[in-house]
Design a protein that fits this description.
single chain; about 425 residues; alpha/beta; eight-stranded mixed sheet; 18 helices
């Protein structure tokens, strides 16, 4: 209960009173009222037949239950959706957990071949799926994020005891800052400790070298898979040239622009932004959500050359980014960012935009990325990056590294590893 209260306080800070009320209403409906579905109970036979039909007639080699309540149709289209999409394209039948707060899927929905959006929160439906799966003699997995705070150890053990294997995606430093709570939720810490102390039928997927070292130190190299974040390369080649940009955004293009999109949070280097602003040389364009109150406290939105446009849907964000000169990731260096493989890094590459980041471990791996060792060096590198915006050889390097990190490759690494044990 204490964790939920902490989360609600954070939601209030993020969205204000009206936004908080909307979120609270949706949360109550999703987590309490929607759990009991009379429609499902009265049509139990119908749904059993439909699910059995899915299990018997689709072409697949394994079944994956994605059980992190990240949601599918959310503005931030991130690793969960991309990995699920690409697993489904590689002989995996994926039942992806939706949140009824964002997806409006009361039962289930066929999204694409071998990918179903599924409402696990519907208790009757969950029982039907479990029963139908018990009759299928194919490898079964439960897959979730290390940041999931919904499923308990008891839930995980139930799956393991019933013949499932567990794919634990260790994608961030374990921290209450990321979970949006004062203290780390128990279900997050419990699952982490459980995974680090058990190897049998448990695969750990890591996205960064620091996370890999942590796993090796605690449980060795057994069932360890490295799969950093990536990009849907082809998606970022399709820029809508007829997309209507807001007048306010167009005004920003009156001088060289440096852009960031993503969360505005405590790990964002606001002091660095202030120094770039003081140069009065570049307009600084920011897209994203206020993850905590750090953005408001920084007051950078009051600066002359800073323009904050709030969040934009994943599907259209590329249309804005395609218009700027340089993309950046200005993060402070701490335990969180030392273990971060930024999805946006690979998206910036696919856009063919010069990239500058602070000295983050995972960003050092790529030749196309200019690294600012400190604030002064970062500012110098902005000028260098701006000079590369029409450099054909450099743009080719960006595209090459983007293609190498396509999500299809990231999913294949996971499949190739678990397949050898099947």
């Amino acid at each position: 209960m204490k964790e939920k209260i902490s989360k609600l306080i954070n939601v209030y800070k993020k969205y204000g009173f009206k936004g908080f009320c909307k979120k609270l209403k949706a949360y109550i409906i999703a987590n309490y009222l929607d759990k009991i579905s009379f429609k499902t109970i009265f049509n139990k036979g119908k749904y059993e037949r439909e699910i059995n039909d899915i299990l018997l007639n689709n072409n697949y080699e394994r079944i994956i239950l994605w059980r992190s309540s990240f949601g599918y149709n959310v503005p931030l289209f991130q690793r969960p959706q991309h990995i699920a999409n690409n697993l489904s394209k590689n002989k995996c039948l994926v039942f992806y957990e939706v949140t009824t707060m964002t997806d409006k899927v009361k039962i289930y929905k066929n999204y694409s071949d071998n990918l179903y959006l599924f409402n696990y929160n519907n208790k009757a439906l969950n029982k039907i799926l479990t029963k139908c799966l018990s009759n299928i003699n194919k490898p079964k997995y439960i897959q979730l994020y290390s940041t999931d705070w919904k499923l308990s150890i008891q839930n995980i053990e139930w799956y393991l005891n019933n013949g499932y294997k567990f794919i634990y995606e260790y994608i961030d430093h374990i921290s209450p800052v990321l979970s949006g709570t004062k203290d780390l939720p128990k279900n997050i810490s419990d699952k982490y400790e459980y995974v680090m102390n058990h190897k049998e039928n448990i695969y750990v997927v890591v996205t960064a070298d620091n996370l890999k070292e942590d796993v090796i130190n605690k449980r060795g190299k057994d069932n360890l898979i490295f799969s950093s974040n990536g990009v849907d390369y082809e998606f970022f080649q399709q820029i809508d040239k007829n997309f209507k940009l807001e007048k306010e955004f167009k005004k920003c293009l009156n001088k060289p622009c440096i852009c960031y999109y993503g969360a505005l949070a405590s790990w964002f280097d606001y002091d660095l932004i202030k120094k770039i602003n003081d140069l009065d040389k570049y307009n600084i364009i920011l897209f994203g959500i206020k993850y905590d109150d750090s953005f408001d406290k920084s007051e950078i939105d009051k600066l002359k050359n800073v323009y904050f446009f709030g969040p934009r849907d994943y599907k259209i964000l590329k249309n804005y980014a395609s218009k700027v000169d340089v993309m950046m990731i200005p993060f402070v260096l701490n335990d969180i960012t030392a273990s971060t493989s930024p999805v946006k890094l690979f998206e910036y590459m696919a856009l063919g935009k010069p990239i500058i980041t602070t000295d983050m471990i995972e960003c050092r791996k790529y030749k196309s990325v200019l690294i600012g060792k400190n604030h002064e060096d970062f500012i110098k590198k902005i000028d260098i990056a701006y000079g590369k915006r029409n450099d054909k050889k450099y743009i080719e390097l960006l595209k090459k590294e983007a293609k190498e990190n396509d999500w299809s490759n990231k999913a294949k690494v996971i499949i190739d590893y678990i397949k050898k044990d099947e």
